[in-house]
Amino acid sequence: MAVTRSKIRRSPRKSLSVATAIVRGGKAPSRRSKSGEGDRMIRTLQQRLLGIVSGSEEEGRSPVVVAAGFVQAFRQLTKTAAVAIYLRDEQTREMICLAEAGGSDASATPEWQELLAKAEQDVRVACGELRAFRLHRIGRLEGLVVISLAGLDRRAARVIGTVVGAVEPWLAVALDHARLTRKYAAKILRIQNMEQVSDLLNSSLPESDKLRHALEAAVRLVEAEAGALFLAGDDGTLTLCAMGGERGAAGLMLQSPSAVEVFRKGQPLLLKQENLAPWVSAPQGWQSVFPVTSLVSVPIRAGSRSVGVLEVANRRSGKPFSNWDVLELASLSNQFGLAIDNLRRSR
Question: Which of 238, 265, 266, 254 is nearest to 312 (CA)?
Answer without folding.
Answer: 254
